[in-house]
Amino acid sequence: MAERELGTRKVEVLRAVVEEYVRTGEPVGSETIAERSGLGVSSATIRNEMAALEELGYLSHPHTSAGRIPTDAGYRKFVDALPPGGRMRDAQRRAIAGFFAETMIDLEDVLKGTTQLLSRVTQYAGLAVPPSGSNEIVMRTELIELGSGLLLLVVGQRGAVDKVMIDRPAQLDAEGLVSLERALTDRVRDKTIAEARAEVLKAAAGAGEAEKEVFTAAADVFGGMQFGAGAHHVLVGGVANLADEAAHWRRETVRRLFEALEHESEMLELMRDVTTEDVNVTIGAEHPHTGEWEASIVSAPFGSGGTALGAVGVVGPTAMDYVGVMASVRAVAKRLSELATELDA
Fold first, then answer.
1. Distance of alpha carbon 313 from alpha carbon 236, whole angstroms
2. Does 136-227 carry CATH code 3.30.390.60?
3. What predicted TM-score, i.e. pTM, was given to this entire model?
């Protein structure tokens, strides 16, 4: 599509300008493109193409420089013209493979590590939105008797594990413990967190004193899962990398981006809009919540059994390595989906 709209040469010149500007952070001149791009045309020809791209709104011309820089529209055209899939560097591929080779059973802990992983392989800030608690399915419950005379209630769902220490009811013997665990599991298994909480609250209302204590504790755990961080929280890793990239941005952009990361609401709205099965790229002010940011968000959903659970992504300057970032985010989301499916099995 991009080639038909602009012509192959303009697309190639635009790609060369974007790649050079991402690499150096400096306005790009026609002689630089002629020397580095391998397009096989003169700098005068490239200068004419760059002038045409500027008229079309894909490049801009800083007053203090003879070179040009991409606009948000230029980055969008560059991203849209990229071939599907993309390629990661060997170091990125090894880092992702090494991370997911570790044994992991708690999806939210994995997501925390994922933000650091994405930050490390892209040099920007990594983002992750955990699954929403209310819609998660309860996989199992366990009551474990500890030597201290306490019970540990464990609730596992989609790889997440929540636990709480509760006093062991004095009148509950070993046989009663097994029976209560079975009753608890029968009530909540294969239900959503919200449904499970309602079930144990109903059970507590009609239970004896010992059972009531355990059911009430279970309701507290489900309540924490339902109304806790999952649906309203963005995990962020590698924020320091944004400071290292600040030379690419205006001071106001840096201030607003750090404020959004701190308050989460704007970033959460961006990540919630991840609806496709592939990578999503939001550039500059394309999204209402980004305003006048000179920043881009690359994100992708992950899920299990055809159901989207959450999203992962990267935030960085508009002058980012889109090829490497998109490939890395896509690969991490794919591995997360595989892991979530394994944990559900």
1. 10
2. yes
3. 0.72
